[in-house]
Design a protein that fits this description.
Structural class: alpha+beta
Helix content: 25-40%
CATH topology of the largest domain: Jelly Rolls
CATH class of the largest domain: Mainly Beta
CATH architecture of the largest domain: Sandwich
Number of domains: 3
Shape: globular
Radius of gyration: 25 Å
Number of helices: 9
Length: about 350
């Protein structure tokens, strides 16, 4: 007998259908930025999370079965009924629901596990919303802090740990594992470590250089596709460099900047909502501010993109940053009808 708190069967079926769509989509390819945010929103509901985790449980069960001695037998047609019975017993679902649920999953992912070959491990996706600072723990124990409107993919195997920072900024506190180097790629940069603490910030259209800053330990930074498994060649500073605590570089498709010194105690102060810049291009400051405010800031002319600025603000001041800039720089600020804020040179009439 159903109670007043029970969820209608149609709602449950809809949730399961949505869970299958998300699961299958992530099995096919990496989610794009908007999909990552939508999936994170969807997973906030307990019923959604439970449905998705059940799919993951079936996925893991199929992988375990494929690796067992029964795997060869289950690959035969006669082994199908045994597999279904095992799944029903393991998951504790009714025969009818278990059959419909598991068959759907088997058609999507089961063949990959019960075939003689197995594909590459699926990447896990993580994203933060606009103005959100999000802490996540990866499967190897590495702790990551994502800045506002940021996203990454994580893929682990027996001999490697690969991270792709898709956009935004992330601080990594890497779990030590000498057998599996930890590698981060971001646009034109590659970072390789074993265990350390460092920050990576992707570039923007206006300022595409990736910034890497080390808080603790040793980090090898290279232009993409030039990271070697051996020690960094100190003579190839245009392509790769080794950083220690309190050092920072910027990497783009052409070269790596000279190493600069920073205060190691203030690395990634954005985790506490504090942003500080010393002789930084205006485009970098605007790109950071845009990840913490609803209405975007636009730089009206190219001549302003590389205007050097020394300033500081907090996350809750992102909305008032343009007014602060107008007071201290030779610029004028205009708010457009669509909510955008446009920065123009102070001598130009709008």
């Amino acid at each position: 007998m159903s109670t007043g708190n029970s969820q209608p069967q149609t709602d449950i079926r809809q949730i399961e259908a949505e869970a299958r769509e998300w699961f299958l989509l992530q099995g096919e390819r990496a989610l794009d930025g908007s999909e990552q945010v939508a999936f994170a929103h969807w997973m906030e509901q307990p019923q959604h999370r439970s449905a998705y985790q059940q799919l993951q449980q079936i996925d893991q069960t199929l992988a375990a079965l494929a690796a067992s001695e029964e795997g060869a037998r289950l690959r035969q047609p006669s082994g199908l009924s045994a597999l279904m019975e095992t799944l029903r017993s393991y998951l504790g679902v009714s025969p009818l629901n278990g059959l419909a649920f598991a068959c759907t999953l088997m058609l999507a992912v089961g063949i990959a596990y019960l075939a003689p070959w197995q594909g590459e491990p699926a990447a896990q996706s993580y994203a933060s919303e606009l103005a959100q600072v999000r802490n996540v723990t990866l499967e190897d124990g590495t702790r990551v802090t994502l800045g506002g409107d940021s996203a990454l993919e994580a893929e682990f195997s027996e001999d490697s740990r690969r991270i792709k920072l898709l956009r935004g900024q992330a601080f990594f506190n890497v779990a030590k594992d000498s057998a599996r180097p930890f590698q981060v790629t971001a646009q034109g940069a590659e970072v390789r470590v074993v265990g350390t603490r460092f920050d990576v910030r992707t570039g923007s259209k206006l300022n595409p250089a990736v910034k890497v800053t080390v808080e603790e330990g040793i980090v090898d930074v290279a232009r993409k596709n030039t990271v070697a498994t051996e020690d960094v060649d100190k003579g190839d500073s245009a392509n790769k460099v080794r950083l220690t605590a309190g050092q920072q570089v910027k990497v783009d498709e052409r070269a790596i900047s000279p190493v600069s010194q920073v205060d190691a105690t203030t690395v990634a102060s954005w985790r506490q909502g504090k942003f500080s810049y010393r002789d930084a291009p205006l485009s970098e400051i605007v790109a950071d501010a845009n990840r913490y405010r609803q209405d975007r800031i636009i730089i009206g002319t190219r001549e302003l993109e590389n205007l050097r600025v020394t300033t500081a603000f907090t996350a809750d001041q992102a909305d008032t940053l343009v007014a602060m800039l107008e007071q201290s720089l030779p610029v004028r600020v205009f708010k457009e009808p669509d909510g955008r804020v446009v920065i123009w040179p102070g001598t130009v009439e709008h």
